[in-house]
Amino acid sequence: MPSVALDERLVRDSYPVTELPLCQLRLMDDSRFPWLILIPRREGVSEVFDLDEADQQQLWREAGEVGRMLKALTRADKINVANLGNVVAQLHVHVVARLRDDDAWPGPIWGQGQPQPYDLNGLASMRDHLLAQLDGLKQRL
């Protein structure tokens, strides 16, 4: 699948993790929340309904599997899946592990406090944990 230019805010605020069948998977640079983003590799798409039916199904399959993996990895109390796009129009889906003791619980994460960027060790550790879990996930997608 061809690569798609990413909105510069997605590039600035997140790190690449891997490529899934439809989406690029990225880690948001805010260590307060285990927070992944799925970005479909389709040009000019800003809404889920802009995708054809097969791509819509694949997007939700990937979101579901990533959410299941993230919940197991982090022992989250809840996984939040959201597609907003008010600031970044390019279609992207947030998959966030929420814990009852996180900085924003039980409210939304957006606009809560200041992001705490990963340090190099924290980033490497999180990516290693994600990649280890993703091996099995990719086979199911």
TrEMBL record:
Pfam families: HIT. Coiled coil: none annotated. InterPro entries: HIT-like, HIT-like_sf, HIT_Hint. Gene3D superfamilies: HIT-like. Residues 36-105 form the HIT domain. This is HIT domain-containing protein.
